[in-house]
Amino acid sequence: MASKALIPFLVGMMLLTGVCNTLLTKYQDLQCVRDCDSPDPKRRALFEQPVLQTAQMFVGEMGCWLVVGGFALWTRVFASGRGEYAPVGTEDDVGEVADAEEGDEEVPPEAGLPIAKPLILPDETRRPLVGWRVILLGLPACCDIAGTTLMNVGLLFVAASIYQMTRGALVLFVGLFSVLFLHRRLHLYQWVALLVVVLGVAIVGLAGVVANSGSAPASSTVLRAAATLLIREISPASSALRTIIGVLLIAGAQVFTATQFVLEEWILERYALEPLKVVGWEGTFGLLVTVIGMAILHLTVGRTPAGRHGYFDASSGWTQLTSSRPLLVSSFLIMLSIGGFNFFGLSVTRTVSATSRSTIDTCRTLFIWLVSLGLGWESFKGLQIVGFGLLVYGTFLFNGIVRPPVIRWLRSRTGRAGVEQVE
Q1: Nearest residue to 182 (alpha-carbon basis) of 281, 258, 78
Q2: Could you tell me the CA-to-CA distances from 203 to 161, 171, 206, 219 in Å, in that order?
Q3: Distances (CA, A) of 238 to 217, 219, 381
Q4: What's the rounded Cα separation, in Å, for the pair 236 and 238?
Q5: Of 21-30, 166-175, 218-227, 353-362, which gets the smallest average pLDDT?
Q6: 20 to 30 A from 163, CA-CA: which of 30, 43, 87, 258?
Q7: Which positions ≥6 away from 240 have C-beta within 8 Å?
């Protein structure tokens, strides 16, 4: 009963940390860092450091090592007190304990707790991921760098809710890559679900474009380096065009995120490692590569006249971050929320299912939208509801949470055998 009682807490904390992560990142993007007293709003410079925000995300993932170390210390201290009275496990834990008892292995009482599952090796039949093989986790970490940085750039141009909804395109690329590279098989209704998700993302982007099409031209955001020179050329046009760019950047970033997920699945199918250690190693490799990349880009681009105060001016970004209390506090909170989201998300995945985690993550979008409306960061868009509804339905349909109408109809007419043939 204690295990089941923890599940609502884990779900609630996953939602809370996930919502805080997106909203705090958008909050940073809205902070003024230069010429804040200017009467002309166009002269005020906001905090635009997506690469630095990527680095702080990896610091948050590295924070998982603190949990791993604390759990190891607690286990060692607890193990030293073995031999004393211990309560009999509940029915929820009998199955997990019985598996280990077959091999005459001692099972710590914490093995049955949902909150401890990300810290326990899930499958000992695979080869342990130790030694030089740990470097393999650097591959998904590099994909995470590319995906997160592109999404942070896209968040500069769109509202937080549109950002979160556009991330729903992830299920499309994960599904496609799973078929191409992992040789998974998708049913017909799952392909239909992917098309519904694409339609939903398109409508969400259209909602942002329509809402901004009649607004005044946005102030020019000076973007440095090759990819940002194009945006500098078109930025004086309209905020609608900026919204399109933001949606495309976020949707394109899902290609890298999907590649990250597929790589992680491929690696962990072959090697065994505690889930939270996977997050910690990816944070370590990700921060290392990000810092090296920031140093190179700062020396080659950030120090040039064109790159000053731009995305790759690491010195300017660090000064802005450390000299602003709101930015510094929000950065610390983002690190906590990232670490917490990974920890509680893994706990939900191993306690309930990956499908449940996907469903909860979809609900996170609704909370982000409601909070953004309440804070006045965006206005209500009716078309956005339609897009969000399609996103939710497509995600639920893909994960098998809802049945497609055709299968429900066939089940009522032909029975289970006919349904299995269609699936």
Answers
A1: 258
A2: 13, 16, 5, 26
A3: 4, 9, 19
A4: 6
A5: 218-227
A6: 43
A7: 208, 209, 210, 212, 213, 215
